[in-house]
Design a protein that fits this description.
Elements (H helix, E strand, L loop, with lengths): L7 H9 L10 E4 L11 H24 L9 E4 H7 L2 H4 L1 E2 L12 E5 L2 E5 L4 H10 L8 H13 L3 H10 L4 E3 L17 E5 L22 E5 L4 H11 L3 E6 L7 H7 L4 E4 L5 H12 L3 E4 L13 H7 L4 E6 L14 H7 L2 H4 L14 H24 L2 E7 H10 L17 E4 L6 E4 L29
Parallel strand pairs: 1-2, 8-9, 8-11, 9-10, 11-12, 12-13
Antiparallel strand pairs: 3-15, 4-5, 5-6, 7-13, 14-15
Length: about 475
C-alpha cells in the first residue's frame, strides 16, 4: 500500500467500530506473497482486524497521554506477522510437540444426501455425539471413527444436524452459498450501544498516561475456545490485567490454554457456591471490562445478563460473543468457527476439485472476531475517558463470516514470499518450553508488543486483581 492510501476493508471495519474516518489512513500494510491463500479474501480480513486493533490501541494511548489522535504516526502492519498469529494454535510447540487441533471424531463426513461436519474436541461433546447417534463409547478411536462414518452415511444431513442439536451435540449440515439458513444479511459486524453512566466526575477514574495502552485496565475474561481468548490475550499484551474465570466442572484443553493464556491469569470459581460467588462479585465490582463467550441467555440465570451488569456497575464495558448471531433461528445453538464455516456456505465455496468441502486457511472467523472485540473494547475505553459511560458490545462468528463473504474487498497481493520464522519466539513456561506466535499488533512509527508473562497453569491462580 502506498503512503496515505486508505485500505477499503480497514476503513469499513474502523467505521463499524465507530472510529473517526480520517484515522483509518494511519494504517498501512507490509505485504507478503502467499499469505492465507483462499478463494475468499481472508488475507484482507485478517490484516484489517489487526490494523484496526493496532489503531484503537494507539488512539487510547494518545488519549491517555493528552495527545490528539490526528497526530499519530503511521502504523505499519506486517501481513506475515498477521498470518502467523492467525494460526497461532498451529504454530505452537510445547517441548517441540505439535498440539492436535481437531480430535478424530471432528471433521467432515458424507451423509446420505450431502455432507455433515462434527465437532467433538471436548470430552463432553464427544460423549453427546456418540450417545445421540447410538454409537457405543467403547473401542479404539479408529473403531469409533468407522462407526461414526457408517452412522452418518445412513442419515440425511439435516436430520443428523437436528438430532445432534436436540441432544446438545455438535453436527452441522453443509449449506451451499445462498441457500443457508443463516440470515447473513441481517448480521452486523459489530453491535455497539453506550450505557448511560454517572458522568465523568462520578464514573470510573480516567486512565492516566502509562507505558502501555491498556495498563491498569482490569478485564474479567469469561471466554473459551479461540475467539474470546484471542481478544483477551490481545488486551493482555497491551498491558491489561486479564483474569480468566472458569467453572471447575468444565476443564480446559491444556494445549489451548498454552496458546491463548499468554499474559493472563486464570482461576476457577463455582458461581453456585456462595463463597465463590462473593469472590466473583468482588472481582466484578472492580472490573473495567467483562468479555463473555457464552451462548445468548446462558448467564442470565446467574444474574450476569449484560443489561444487569451495566446497570449495577456504571462505567463497565461488556463485550459479548456468540457463534450464530443475537437473533434468528440459530441464536441459542452451540457453535464453533469450523461449524459456522459449514452453515454459512464458506465450506462449499472453498471446496476442492473433488467436491469435498473445504476450510479457510486459518480459524479466521475466530481470530478476526477476537481482534475486533479487543479493538471495540479499546475504543470504548477511549470514549469512557470523556464520558465515564460504559458500553455494550456484541459480536458473532456468523457476523464475521457474513462480512468475509459480502463485505471484504479483495486487494492486490505482493511482497516477498511469506516466511513465519521471524514472527515466532520461544519462552519457558509451566507447560515447558514453548514456541509461539508473536503478537502482530504494532505501535505508531514502528515496534510491537510482547506479553509480560507466559501462560500459567489453567485455573491455578488466586482469583484477585493485581
Amino acid at each position: 500500500m502506498d503512503h496515505g492510501q486508505i485500505d477499503t476493508t480497514t476503513a469499513d471495519a474502523w467505521a463499524a467500530l465507530g472510529g473517526a474516518p480520517a484515522l483509518a489512513a494511519k494504517v498501512m500494510y507490509a505485504p507478503s506473497a502467499g499469505v492465507l491463500p483462499a478463494r475468499l479474501p481472508v488475507r484482507e480480513l485478517a490484516r484489517a482486524t489487526v490494523g484496526v486493533c493496532s489503531l484503537a490501541a494507539a488512539e487510547l494511548d494518545a488519549r491517555r497521554s493528552g495527545h490528539p489522535a490526528a497526530g499519530l504516526a503511521e502504523l505499519r502492519v506486517a501481513e506475515a506477522a498477521v498470518a502467523t498469529a492467525f494460526v497461532s494454535e498451529r504454530q505452537l510447540r510445547i517441548e517441540e510437540r505439535r498440539p492436535v487441533s481437531f480430535a478424530p471424531l471432528s471433521g467432515f463426513w458424507r451423509a446420505a444426501d450431502g455432507w455433515v461436519r462434527t465437532h467433538a474436541n471436548y470430552p463432553h461433546h464427544r460423549a453427546r455425539l456418540l450417545a445421540t447417534l447410538g454409537i457405543p463409547a467403547r473401542g479404539t478411536p479408529e473403531e469409533q471413527v468407522e462407526r461414526l462414518r457408517a452412522e452418518l452415511a445412513a442419515r440425511p444431513a439435516h436430520e443428523a444436524q437436528e438430532t445432534a442439536y436436540a441432544a446438545g451435540a455438535l453436527a452441522v449440515a453443509l449449506a451451499e452459498p445462498g441457500a443457508t439458513a443463516m440470515p447473513l444479511d441481517a448480521l452486523p459486524l459489530v453491535e455497539s450501544r453506550p450505557v448511560p453512566g454517572p458522568g465523568p466526575d462520578a464514573g470510573p477514574r480516567p486512565l492516566p498516561a502509562a507505558a502501555l495502552p491498556a495498563e491498569g485496565v482490569r478485564v474479567l475474561d469469561l471466554t473459551r475456545v479461540i475467539a474470546g481468548p484471542v481478544a483477551t490475550r490481545t488486551l493482555a499484551v497491551l498491558g491489561a490485567d486479564v483474569l480468566r474465570i472458569d467453572a471447575p466442572r468444565l476443564p480446559e484443553d491444556p494445549d489451548a490454554h498454552a496458546d491463548t493464556g499468554f499474559g493472563k491469569r486464570s482461576a476457577r470459581l463455582d458461581l453456585g457456591d456462595p463463597a465463590d460467588r462473593r469472590t466473583f462479585d468482588a472481582l466484578l465490582a472492580r472490573a473495567d471490562v467483562v468479555v463473555s463467550g457464552y451462548r445468548p441467555g446462558a448467564l442470565d440465570g446467574l444474574g450476569l445478563a449484560a443489561d444487569t451488569l451495566t446497570e449495577r456497575h456504571p462505567g463497565l464495558i461488556v463485550a459479548e460473543l456468540c457463534a450464530w448471531g443475537w437473533s434468528g433461528p440459530w441464536t441459542g445453538r452451540r457453535g464453533f468457527d469450523s461449524l459456522v464455516q459449514v452453515a454459512t456456505g464458506i465450506a462449499a465455496l472453498e471446496a476442492g476439485p473433488d467436491g469435498r468441502p473445504g476450510v479457510l486457511p486459518a480459524q479466521a472467523l475466530d481470530h478476526g472476531t477476537g481482534y475486533l472485540i479487543a479493538a471495540a473494547v479499546l475504543r470504548a475505553l477511549t470514549a469512557r475517558q470523556d464520558t465515564g459511560a460504559g458500553r455494550r458490545l456484541r459480536f458473532s462468528l456468523a457476523g464475521t463470516a457474513s462480512w468475509l463473504m459480502h463485505g471484504v474487498t479483495p486487494a492486490p497481493e505482493g511482497g516477498p514470499e511469506y516466511d513465519p520464522a521471524p514472527w515466532l519466539a520461544e519462552t519457558e513456561s509451566p507447560y515447558g518450553a514453548l514456541r509461539y506466535a508473536r503478537s502482530p499488533l504494532v505501535r505508531p512509527g514502528g515496534g510491537g508488543f510482547n506479553w509480560s508473562r507466559p501462560p500459567g497453569r489453567w485455573g491455578a491462580d488466586t482469583p484477585r486483581w493485581r
